[in-house]
Each structure stands twice: as C-alpha cells, then as structure tokens.
C-alpha cells in the first residue's frame, strides 16, 4: 500500500518532529493537537527548524516552503484523521489519554488505516484492545529529536498482524529511518535499558555522589555518550522519563525500577526539563 497521508496526534517535542520527517518524505500530514494554538505552535517549530536548514545551505527556500505546505495544523480530530492512511499518536505518556484517542481514532478512520503509538513504554496490546482493529495497531517509537535520530522501534503486540508490521517498517524506511522490529515487552529495547540508567543517575545526584555537571561529564567521557543521563532526561522531559520508569516498575513488579524520589519531586514541582525552562538544569527561554 502506497501511503499518501499521515495524521500525527500531539504536536509537542516528538509530534512536531515526526510530522516534519513525514512531510520531508513527501507525505501530506495533518498535525493534530487539543487546541489551534498548540497545533499551530507545532508547525511554527517545524518552520523554525527548516529555516535553520536553509540558513546553513542544507535546503533551498523552495524546498522548505514545499515541506511546510504539506503540513496542516488541526484541532478537530475528525478533520485530522479523515483521509489518513496511517496515524502516529504522540500524545502525553498517560494510558488514559492514549486509550481515549485510540477509541476515537478507530471510529473516525477508514477501516484499513494503521494506528501507531510513539509511546516510550506503555502497552501497545492495551491500546489495540480499545479498538475494533487490534491487528492494525502497532508501536512506532521514534527518538528525540525525531528529525535527527535514525532509530525507529517497530513494536509488535500479540494482536499486531505481520502486514501492519511490514507497512510500518516501510514507512519508517521511507522517512529515512532504520527500523528495528521487536515483540512487545515492557520498555521495548531502548527504554528498558536506558530508563534504569537515567534513574540511577538521579540516585547518584540525590545521594551527593557528585554534582549534576560532574555526573554528566563522567558518563559522557567515560562511556562516549553524546550527552550525560541527567541532561538527556531534561531533554526528554522529566515527566516522560518518570512515566517510563513507573511503567517498568509496575509491569515487572521489580524494585530495581523504583523511581528516584528526587526525580518524582522535580516532576511534582513542575520542573519538567528544557520544555518548562528548568529541570535538573536551568534553561533560558
Ligand atoms: N520526549 C521524548 O524524548 C520522547 C521520545 C520518544 C517517545 N516519546 C513519547 O512520545 C509521546 C509524546 O511525548 P512528547 O515528549 O512529545 O510530549 P510533549 O509534552 O512535548 O507533547 C505532547 C503533546 O500532546 C498534546 N496533547 C495532550 N492531550 C492530547 C490529546 N488528547 N490528543 C492529542 N494531543 C494531546 C499536548 O498538548 C502536547 O502538545 C509520549 O508518549 C512520550 O512517551 C517521547
């Protein structure tokens, strides 16, 4: 099936990046968020990112305009999802939000449309059960920033058909990504390994082992990571990071995934990282 139109639900950190990559691959994109303001903000972020590419000589102004013209901001889900061959959900990492969206998308989309979630750690099988097309529900996990990071995890729930996996793998490749296919288990591959490491970095900070800067410097220089785990958590969003750790803790019922109280406190205080201007570190506007 040749995909022509994609709907991205959620225009935040991940959604705007995924929409940009899809439009750059030549697809028409509707970018849905809960208000006009949020949806338009997503398109503005894309235009800003592409302006940077034009300034660096990596893209012509005509190409930029063509990419932006393929993206329509929407705050009406019926308009956004109608006509879409493939939907990528990138709403907040809360199961109740995802279940509500999947049930509504199931009503609004054509029967053959694939519904994918960009969740960091939540169950694709559970989302599929909220629809009447469980075989067409799949995980499509991009990484931050979606414009740059090559990996896409394609997550097959026990309900996902091989055809749906194949369509998703083809879409990831068309978007210039390297897909890795896996069977659904909590945290998939990357989150399962990365989230406990980030959590441990928060414990090290809380216990006064070293400053945040020194923990990040040690992990960058000692393991050749491009950024330290605390900086990475700020970049991902501390709410998203905590939600992933909580999912591992709950799903495996194993105390090795217990969330660090320092991380919990920062999230409760609304210090969610770069997106709110403060997390472990402080950021300018
Ligand atoms: N941040 C990361 O590094 C990262 C990486 C990979 C995957 N993810 C996953 O991607 C998803 C989105 O994360 P994010 O970091 O972009 O979050 P975000 O907070 O930056 O953006 C979420 C967006 O969803 C919108 N939204 C709220 N309710 C909605 C609804 N009912 N329908 C549609 N949109 C709604 C919000 O207004 C916001 O614009 C989460 O499941 C997260 O776990 C995040």
Report on this model:
The protein is an alpha/beta fold. The protein folds into 2 domains: 5-183, NAD(P)-binding Rossmann-like Domain (Rossmann fold), CATH 3.40.50; 191-275, Orthogonal Bundle (N-(1-d-carboxylethyl)-l-norvaline Dehydrogenase, domain 2), CATH 1.10.1040. It is 48% helix and 14% strand. The protein is built from 12 helices and 8 strands. An 8-stranded mixed β-sheet has the order 3-2-1-4-5-6-7-8, with helices on both faces. Helix 1 links the parallel strand 1 and strand 2. The longest helix has 20 residues, at 36-55. The mean pLDDT is 97. Bound molecules: nicotinamide-adenine-dinucleotide. Nicotinamide-adenine-dinucleotide binds next to helix 1 and helix 5. Residues 9-15, 32-34, 38, 90-93, 97, 101, 118-120, 142-144, 236-237, 240, 275 line the site of nicotinamide-adenine-dinucleotide (NAD).
Beta strands, count: 8
Give the overall shape: globular
Number of domains: 2
- Helix segment tally: 12
CATH superfamily of the largest domain: NAD(P)-binding Rossmann-like Domain
Low-pLDDT parts are none
Could you please say which CATH topology of the largest domain applies here?
Rossmann fold
Gyration radius over CA = 19 Å
Bound small molecules, which ones?
A: nicotinamide-adenine-dinucleotide
> Share of helix among residues?
40-55%
The helix/strand series, from N terminus to C terminus, equals: EHEHHEHEHEHEEHEHHHHH
**Category from helices, strands and their pairing:** alpha/beta
**Overall pLDDT score:** 97
Describe the largest sheet: 8 strands, mixed
Strand content: 5-15%
């Amino acid at each position: 099936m040749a995909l022509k139109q994609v709907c991205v639900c959620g225009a935040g950190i991940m959604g705007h990046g995924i929409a940009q990559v899809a439009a750059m691959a030549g697809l028409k994109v509707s970018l849905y968020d809960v208000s006009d303001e949020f949806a338009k903000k997503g398109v503005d972020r894309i235009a800003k990112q592409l302006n940077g590419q034009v300034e660096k000589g990596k893209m012509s102004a005509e190409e930029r305009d063509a990419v932006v013209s393929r993206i329509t901001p929407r705050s009406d889900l019926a308009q956004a999802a109608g006509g879409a061959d493939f939907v990528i959900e990138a709403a907040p990492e809360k199961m109740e939000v995802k279940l509500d969206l999947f049930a509504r998308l199931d009503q609004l989309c054509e029967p053959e449309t694939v519904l994918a979630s960009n969740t960091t750690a939540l169950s694709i099988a559970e989302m599929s059960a909220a629809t009447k097309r469980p075989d067409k529900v799949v995980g499509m996990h991009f990484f931050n920033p979606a414009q740059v990071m090559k990996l896409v995890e394609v997550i097959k729930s026990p309900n996902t058909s091989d055809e749906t996996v194949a369509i998703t793998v083809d879409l990831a490749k068309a978007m210039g990504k390297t897909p890795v296919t896996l069977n659904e288990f909590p945290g998939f591959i990357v989150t399962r390994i990365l989230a406990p490491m980030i959590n441990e970095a928060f414990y090290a900070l809380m216990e006064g082992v070293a400053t945040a800067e020194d923990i990040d410097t040690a992990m960058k220089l000692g393991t050749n990571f491009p950024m330290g785990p605390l900086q990475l958590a700020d970049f991902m969003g501390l709410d998203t990071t905590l939600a992933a750790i909580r999912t591992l803790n709950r799903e495996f019922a194993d105390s090795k995934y217990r969330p660090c109280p320092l991380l919990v406190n920062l999230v409760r205080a609304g210090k969610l990282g770069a997106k709110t201007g403060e997390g472990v570190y402080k950021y300018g506007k």
